[in-house]
Design brief:
single chain, alpha+beta, Nonspecific Lipid-transfer Protein, Chain A, five-stranded mixed β-sheet, 5 strands
Length: 106
């Protein structure tokens, strides 16, 4: 699985009820093999993914592509990844805590 495939899976498992009232852009910067830059836009109960850098974002996530894939796949705990520096987040941390709940378990 690559970054784009994980993001597409996230879109499919997105739970609009958990995103009620959220209007935000999350910038994902995944480094290393298979990485890339993606803007995750959440608005009106939908999530859209676009390749590239968002003009304005509420949160910026910096992570190695492999670690992101492991987090989404459930092999790496996001809190542990954050605490050990594998997952670096800048911006609205409250939004990130809520973001974790916006996806139904696969």
């Amino acid at each position: 699985m690559n970054i784009l495939e994980t993001l597409q899976a996230m879109v499919k498992s997105f739970d609009p009820a958990q995103a009620k009232g959220v209007n935000a852009v999350i910038q994902l910067n995944a480094t290393g093999e298979g990485g890339g830059q993606y803007a995750l836009s959440i608005a009106d109960g939908k999530m859209d993914v676009t390749e590239g850098v968002a003009e304005k974002s509420s949160v910026q996530i910096n992570v190695a592509a492999k670690d992101w894939i492991d987090i989404i796949g459930g092999q790496l705990d996001p809190t542990k990844a954050f605490m050990t520096g594998k997952l670096r987040i800048a911006g609205d941390l409250g939004l990130m805590m809520r973001f974790q709940r916006m996806f139904m378990p696969g």
